[in-house]
Amino acid sequence: MSTIAVVATSSAQINARNTRRKADAVQISKALELYYADNSSYPNTGGAMENNCPGSGYSDTDPGSWIPGLTSGGYMAKLPRDPNTGKGNPNSVWPACQTLPTSNCYRYRSDGTNYKILIACTPEGTLSATDPFYDPARPTYSWQLTNNLAATSAW
Predict the structure, then answer these.
(1) Domain residue limits, the chain
(2) How far is Cα 23 from Cα 121, in angstroms, rounded to an integer?
């Protein structure tokens, strides 16, 4: 009986983390749209994929460093972090996600016209092509949210 309770608790925790990841991406996306409405472009990373991964230079004391202008412009008070940032994901099919906690985080890329928010390595469970957060460039280990899938699918 206790084994069933542990499995149920673990499953509930996984579902809660996955729900939070998607909610974080939607929250960032809404802030990006507000930024766009005021600036006629999205925060531009010059084509680089910025992130809040451990070791990236991002810190909780500098909450907006990985999406330029989003926090300093007042669009978000603080950028969220993945609930398992800094931890490996042993359930991932991609080996780097399993063993390199520096790969497991949120990422952002924009050319000013298009953007992509990437939930890298941390989604738990089976990823499905029918999920609206499905990332065709990383179909087995990441989710994404973008304003233009055709333009950002290879990012």
Answers:
(1) 2-152
(2) 17
